[in-house]
What does this fold into?
Amino acid sequence: MKNIVIVGGGFAGLWAGLTAARELDLHGGAARITLVTKDEYLTVRPRLYEVFSEGLRAPLRPVLEPLGIQLQLGTVQDIDRQQRSVHLSVAGGESLALPYDRLIFTAGSEQRPLEIPGAAKFALNIDTFAAAQTFDRHLQDVLRAPDRPGRLTFIIVGGGFTGIELATEMRTRIRAHSDAATARKARIILIERGNVIGRHLGANPRPAIEAALREAQVEIYFGASVAQIERDAVRLTDDKHIDASTVVVTTGLRANPLVAQLGANTDDHGRVIVDEMLRVNGAHDIFAAGDAACAKADEQHAALMSCQHAIPMGKYAGYNAAHDVLGTPLRPYSQPNYVTCLDLGESGALFTVGWERKPEKSGAVGKQLKQTINTQWIYPPSGSRESILAAADLDGVWPPAV
Ligand SMILES: Cc1cc2nc3c(=O)[nH]c(=O)nc-3n(C[C@H](O)[C@H](O)[C@H](O)COP(=O)(O)OP(=O)(O)OC[C@H]3O[C@@H](n4cnc5c(N)ncnc54)[C@H](O)[C@@H]3O)c2cc1C
It folds into this structure.
């Protein structure tokens, strides 16, 4: 029996597995699908700025098991392209080698570390479920602690998508662990080394973002970054000193360094370059999708590190790996429609359309859409085997029309 091995149990890996299983099921192909990942959950990373809860991750077994997809927990250490095998360390320090006929690489991305003194010890982030949990515990500790200089000062480094969402949500998060008066009293500071907020989002959404940050009483420091972090203070690159108990870094993602194992060309974010079939250039038996892969979404644009791209890319990679095993035609990935939905805390959310990000819905209407995306659209399908298989149809409409 042939083996399809998927590395990574995020959005791309999950949907690759489901779609591959659907195609094999429909076309009578026998292949074993194994999904290798670090834990048995899909972490819903786009929600990690929200008030922390167990619901920010979803169990993988209930969606994989009905389709006969094997879940192998472990950390991939090495990919041997010559031998076609994936080497991983598993619980108890054992190692395991998994042979593959087709590999689907979906190991995702990680926060770029801030390489400054004190960051490794004191900087927090919301990149993974564990990091978000650590941040939440820190928040609880700080809010319970006796008052001291900087106790209620919360510094968010990076004025991009995640920094904006966290900054505008911060008072709600403080209130959740204390009270309205404490939340009002807190200083929320957003540090952006450029001279505009949301630089990568372009000019169109900026007025709404700036208004929301004003309403949330977020102080913005432009043109500086953090130079040093101590337990209760930070020093900025312009030498300013701020007493602060909390520093959260949100300065952008890079592809999982495991990409280097594929021995193929990468882009500026460290993503492996793939062709229109999502095949890693130069490797006929490896597909890649999601944040770890750089694919063309249309003639002018590369897919972004986003769920919106990772889910369809995962579906195409799964479809193509399965049809490659079956010896039937593959289908080229493309995704010309692009939208964004940015949470702006108590100001609602901003939904934009097109690569120029033209605002289309805002306030409470935008917020309702954001909540639907965050609590329904990006969660794994549930229910019977048939309904899970139906959700994995490459021609199904996702994201649903808005
Ligand atoms: C705070 C935050 C907010 C975001 N907000 C949005 C948003 O609003 N909208 C949006 O579209 N996107 C958003 N994103 C981006 C989005 O979360 C990613 O694009 C998406 O998670 C990519 O999916 P993926 O499957 O490619 O990778 P990931 O979700 O990163 O999954 C990778 C998987 O690989 C596994 N893995 C990694 N290394 C190994 C290894 N060595 N061995 C075994 N398994 C491994 C991981 O455990 C994980 O299961 C946000 C991201 C963050 C961090």
Notes: The mean pLDDT is 96.
